[in-house]
Amino acid sequence: MKKSILIALLAAPLMAGAASAQTKVVNKAVTETEVLAAQKGWCSALVDISDTYAAKGLPAAKQLATKVVDEAYGYQLGAVLFKPTLAAAPQSFRTTREGAISYFVGGDQAFPHDHGFATKNWKRCDIENAAIFIAGDTATTMGNVRFTDKDGKVTIVDKTWEFVKDNAGKMRIMVHHSSLPFIGD
Amino acid sequence: MKKSILIALLAAPLMAGAASAQTKVVNKAVTETEVLAAQKGWCSALVDISDTYAAKGLPAAKQLATKVVDEAYGYQLGAVLFKPTLAAAPQSFRTTREGAISYFVGGDQAFPHDHGFATKNWKRCDIENAAIFIAGDTATTMGNVRFTDKDGKVTIVDKTWEFVKDNAGKMRIMVHHSSLPFIGD
Amino acid sequence: MKKSILIALLAAPLMAGAASAQTKVVNKAVTETEVLAAQKGWCSALVDISDTYAAKGLPAAKQLATKVVDEAYGYQLGAVLFKPTLAAAPQSFRTTREGAISYFVGGDQAFPHDHGFATKNWKRCDIENAAIFIAGDTATTMGNVRFTDKDGKVTIVDKTWEFVKDNAGKMRIMVHHSSLPFIGD
Amino acid sequence: MKKSILIALLAAPLMAGAASAQTKVVNKAVTETEVLAAQKGWCSALVDISDTYAAKGLPAAKQLATKVVDEAYGYQLGAVLFKPTLAAAPQSFRTTREGAISYFVGGDQAFPHDHGFATKNWKRCDIENAAIFIAGDTATTMGNVRFTDKDGKVTIVDKTWEFVKDNAGKMRIMVHHSSLPFIGD
Fold first, then answer.
1. What DSSP character marks residue C26?
2. How far is CA B84 from the centre of its chain?
3. A178, C62, D31, D59: least surrounded by Cβ within 10 Å?
4. What does the alpha-carbon distance between residue D182 and residue C115 come to, in Å, rounded to a whole number?
5. C118-162 tens-digit pLDDT
6. CB pair distance less than 8 Å for B29 and C31
7. Inter-chain CB proximity A180 and D131 less than 8 Å
8. What is the pTM of this model?
9. Contact A49, A71 (CB under 8 A)
10. Cα–Cα distance for residue pair D94/A162, rounded to 1 Å
11. ipTM, interface predicted TM-score of the complex
C-alpha cells in the first residue's frame, strides 16, 4: 500500500451504522437455559402423551408421540442413540424413529415387548440434574428423572440426554440413555 | 484501491511455498477411528487394572486406576457425567475424580458401597456399538460392552460414552452412563 | 440389583445384529476433504457466473448468483460475516443476502458502487491454502485465491473462509474475508 | 427387572443433594460477553506493547509481545491463521509464533520487512463489530478496528477474528485476518 493510500485511510470516515447495538449475532452455542427448557419440554410432552392416551386412546396418543419424536429428537440426522429405560435386548437400542415411537406408546408388531412407557398415567415428571456438560452446540445432562403417576407412585430413573441445537435453533435429542437405578447389595 | 496499485497486484508473484502439501492443518474434529481407539483404550485399561490387582494388590491397582482416570477422563474440566454400572443412590453419579477411582478399585471410606469394579478378574472387554454420533470435537457412542472374567463368565452392560478431544489432541471421557440391561417381562 | 438378576444377566445372549458393520454413524464433523471440495465449489461457481454473464447477460447471471449465494452461504442462519475484496465503506460488510448477490453481479441500486465481481470474465480460480483450522463442524481456511481472466491476467487475493456443515451435511460459508494483498514499502 | 425390584425402586429415596443449585456445569460454549472481552483484551495488549516500546525500548516490547502472543493466540495448537494488516507476500501469512511476534515488534531478520505494528505509538484501539458468529466453542467476529495514535491520527482496518475457548476456559485467537479497507473508484 503506497503512502498516499495510507494517508487517505487515516482520514476515512467510520463505516455508517457501526454501533454495537446493530451488531448481528448468529449464535449456535447452547446455553444452560436452553438445556433446562429442553428437558422440561420432554417432561411436558411425556405427560401430554399420557393424558392423551387416557382421554382419547391409542391412535391419538400415537399421533402425538409421533409428533413429539419428530420435533424433540434428531432422527432426521440419520439415527438417535436411544436406550429407553424398559427396553430389553435384542431391542435395547432404538436407533430408528419407529423404535422410539413404539417405546412411548406400544402397539407396533415390530417391537412386541413394548407396552408404551408414556401410557402409564404419568401426571408429573421432575428433573434433578447431577451435572451438565455444554460442549458448544451440544449439551449433555445426567441425573435423575422422577415420574409420578395418577396414584402418586414415583418411579425414578438415571438419565443421560445429549441435545444438539439444529440450524433452526431447535434443541434436539441425539442421545438418550435411561436406566433403572442399580440397587446395591 | 487506485488503478496503479491494482495493476501492480496483477503482476505480483505467488506467495512462496504455497503448495498444498505445505498447508498447515490444525484439526480438532474427532474421527471414527479415534473414537474406536479411545473405546479400546478404556477396555485395555480396565483389564490392566484387573490384572494389576490380581498380581500386586490394591495399592498398585489404585495407583494405576488413578493414572487411568486422570488420563482417560476429563475431570480436569471441572466434572464428569459418570453413572457407573454398579453404583447406587445416593452415590449413583460420580462427578468427582475420587468417586471414579473408588468405583474402579474400592477401598475409599467416602464410598462405602464400592467393591471395585475393576478388581473382578476381568480378562476381556469387548465393545459392540449400536450407533455413534460425532458432533465436531466430541463423539458419543452407545452400545453393549461385554466383560469376560477369568472363569469365562460374561457380563453385558448398556453403555454410553461421550468423548471430547482436548487441546492436546487426547480423547477424554466427559460422559459415561453404564447400566445393567433391563430384563423384560 | 439382586444376585438372581445378576446371574441371569451373566447368561444373557448378546444383542442381535451387533456387528460393527451395522453401527450407525451420524457424523457432523468436517473433514479436510470436505473443506477442499467446498473451496473448489466456490471457485467453480464464480467461473460459472462469469460465463453465464458473458453468454446470457445480467438477468441470467443474477439468477445464478442468487442460487449460489443461497446454496453456498449461510444467510439462512441470520447473517454471514462477508467482507468482499472490492467492497468499500460504508458497505464493506455484506451481512445480508442482498449485499452478497449485489457484490457478485451488481445492478442493485442499494449498493451503487458494486460493479459485479463475478462479471469480470474469470476463466480460472485457483486456491493455495496457507493453513486450515478444523474446529469440529466448522472449518476455516486462509490463503491466496488466484483469479485468471480471459486475457490471462491474474488477480491474487488474501482470503479467509469459515465453513459450517449444516444439518443436511452441506458446507456453508459463514465467514468470508477477502482483501487485496498489502504492497510493502 | 422383576416386579419386586420395581416396587423397591418406587420407594427409593431421591439422591442426596440433588437441588439444582448443586448441579455441576462444565461449559465449553462461548458467550457473546466472552467474545467482547477477548476483543478488548487484544486492543489493550496492543496499546500496552506500544506504551512499553515508547517507555522502555524494543527488548521490553518484544518480551511483552511474546507473552501476548503466547497467551492470546493459539500457536500451541500447531498453527494460527494470521494475515496481519501490513504483511506483504511472500510473508503475508504468519502461521508461526515467530512470525506473529515479529509483526508486532519487528527486529527479526527472518522477517526483514516488519517494522513492528505495535510500536507505532497507539494510544487507543476501538472495535466496531458488524457481525458475530458463535459456533459453539469458537466465535468469529468481523468489523472495523480503529487505531488512534499519540497525534490523534486514526487508522481503520477491516478485521476478522476467530477465537476458540481452550480447555482452561481461555479464549485464544486461531484466525486473524486484517486488511486495509478497499478504497473504491
1. E
2. 13
3. D59
4. 14
5. 999 999 999 999 999 999 899 999 999 999 999 999 999 999 999
6. yes
7. no
8. 0.88
9. no
10. 38
11. 0.88
